[in-house]
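Format notes (please read before filing issues)

Several people have asked whether sequences and structure tokens are stored in separate files. They are not. Every record keeps both together, in the order shown below: the sequence lines, then the token lines. Line labels are part of the format and must not be stripped during preprocessing.
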Amino acid sequence: MPLEQKPLGFDSAALEPSIDKQTMEIHYGKHYAAYVNNYNDAVKKQPELDGKPLHEVLAKDCAMVKEEIKTAVRNNGGGAHNHALFWEILNPAGKPGAEPVGKLADAIKRDFGGFAQFKEKFEAAAKTRFGSGWAWLIKKGDKLEVISTANQDSPIMQGAFPVIGLDVWEHAYYLKYQNRRPDYITAWWNVVNWKVADDRFGRAK
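Then the structure lines:
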């Protein structure tokens, strides 16, 4: 059963002014679609992967994947998985100043000292990721950590559970923000769905 695009769940203009409609249309309809399609093409060369949950395929640095398709699966499977998470945590009803809720809020306070300290660390990871990649809040073991990954690498490849992730590839922000990645990062906080993030944290293993 081929991997399918996860529905966006909201109108492409719903995140304005933080993320503009045209960027969302291209990001979801072109970039994400390409990752899904290219992943499906790659796994045709290893049929036993067809229908396997993507997080299992990506686990342990794609350990179950044949070497001849590992790069394609890593790049495109990682891209598909990362983007599916990205759409999940975006919130059209987001409000400036919103903060984490529930058990996630408690864990952020425990592991970072508070939301402000976490936010500063997360923004630094996003701003300093050279070239293309992602910034992440992950759960690894019993603790939360902030990391960044290159290209479409997923924390799952490192044995970690991604709670939230921020896409800092230029395709995620360049039409509106051009080279002003810090402005995009600041605006992104306005559309984070902290309820979904808390639910994801609750599922973390």
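For reference, the curators noted about this record: The beta strands are 133-140, 143-150, 161-167. The two ends are 26 Å apart (CA to CA).
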